[in-house]
Amino acid sequence: MSTDTGDDWAAAMAEQAIEEAQAVELDEFSSDPSPFSESEASKLDAIMDIPVTISMEVGRSFINIRNLLQLNQGSVVELDRVAGEPLDVMVNGTLIAHGEVVVVNDKFGIRLTDVISQTERIKKLK
User: Fold this and answer.
1) Cα 32 to chain center, whole Å?
2) CA–CA separation, 5 vs 49, rounded Å?
3) By C-alpha distance, which of 56, 114, 119, 111 is closest to 88?
4) At 87, phi and psi to the nearest 5?
5) What single-letter DSSP state applies at residue 35?
């Protein structure tokens, strides 16, 4: 068992990329290495180190307090999702993507299958 999980993740992702390889047309990049001006880049740098909470939500369930207090080891709580349905990827409580669970080297991870566009996220805020 390797202690370098970064290499294991890279190998798993490379294997996945080979399985799903498809021809894709890419737009040409401009010669400018950064699409931002210096002042915009410095403003962006100011927020890059702000920590956020990322969580994966398998599903939800609403129960009353009486049933909540009766839960004990071995209790089963039914969720509002069916098996195989994608998980929600939340950042600070806001849905940003959907994904599926992967296991690499006995650790759980998530492979993003659909990223919510910025426009859609703004619409949900209104």
Assistant:
1) 30
2) 24
3) 56
4) -85, 155
5) S
Q: Are 56 and 96 in contact (CB under 8 A)?
A: no
pLDDT at residue 108 tops 50: yes
Q: DSSP character for 20?
A: T
Mind listing the pLDDT tens digit for each residue in 27-47? 665 555 566 777 777 777 778
The average confidence (pLDDT) of the chain is: 80
- Compute the distance between CA of residue 85 and CA of residue 22 in angstroms, rounded to an integer: 24
Residue with tokens 């190998």: 11
In this prediction the pTM is: 0.56
- For 100, half-sphere exposure in the C-beta direction (CA atoms, 13 angstrom radius) is 5
DSSP string, 60-124: -----HHHHHT--TT-----SS-TTPPEEEEETTEEEEEEEEEEETTEEEEEEEEEPPHHHHHHH
The whole-angstrom separation of Cα 78 and Cα 70 is 15
User: Is residue 113 within 8 Å of 88, Cβ to Cβ?
Assistant: no
Q: Are strands 87-91 and 54-57 parallel, antiparallel or unpaired?
A: antiparallel
